[in-house]
Amino acid sequence: MRPELLRPSAALARWLRVLAALALLLLVPTSLVAHPLAPALLQIREQPDGKVEVSWKTSLLQVRGSRVVPVLPPECTQVGEARAAESGESVTETWTVDCGRDGLVGRTIGVRGLGEGRNDTLLRIALADGRTIQEVLRVGADTFTVPETGRPSNILAGYVGLGFDHILTGIDHLLFVFGLLLLATSTRLLVETITAFTVGHSITLSLAALGIARVPSAPVEVLIALSIFLLAVELAREAPPSSTLLRRFPWVMAFLFGLLHGLGFAGALREIGLPSDDIPLSLFSFNVGIELGQLGFVLVVLTAGFLLRRVLDRLPAWSERIPVYGIGCLSAYWVLDRLAGALR
To answer: Which domains are assigned to the chain?
Structure first.
């Protein structure tokens, strides 16, 4: 495909707006909760005597009617009472099981209810022989058998997948990226804008994930919704593209709000945690997954706009306002809803 076919010209921008109107009709019923549910975390630490400490961390926000629960080997019996502790937006249950002298090697661990819960689970196992194993359990692959011998770490693949899933199921982040596409009026501005957004959220994601910058998640989520609303207001203006600073330099807005969205990405990463012995790799992998998902979304939107240009060009001119107002109304709802939640 020639580069000029993907250039975000004024005509293509109109096509993209109309295309988004159709997408919004499909997304609104499921987008009132703008973030995907944070992945659950199942941590298992095996002791030399066969005792196993289990920690099960889940988000307090659950899909109605769903119940995601860990499934331990049938040979393991619980010892003592389970304990639960609530912290922020998650709850952690801990208990001890006795798996006998054979331990966990060769046995299967899984999670039930991932389909109903619409989230993945990060499984982290510390074996008595010193090995650390990490897997991502998801629908269709919700069990894992502990191998007899060690194998190369799959942290890279696991955290790339988590980052990829997070950005593609985060409707608020995708709407902001889509708004940036509409704001950029040339290929150069488009590249600068997406790059600036990437640099911005990469900085704060790293700082927050490493514990250098600690910001409560509730106000961050409110400000993320507000950033989308402000972008929609700018897109709704009738003024010429050169009349405002944001339209002349959209990469400035992308960088500043990217810093904010990075804190939102870090919230999901904090829920699952970073392995203490592989922090740089897991953080890098999660960010790579976010970038792959973001670039994939941009390419799909631009390609769809080009392929459907003849159909979309026949629609009335007023139809291009629908997605802008839709994004504005949805983001305004998020601002009020998240503000109410933060005040509670």
So the answer is: 3-35+170-343 (no CATH), 41-153 (2.60.40)
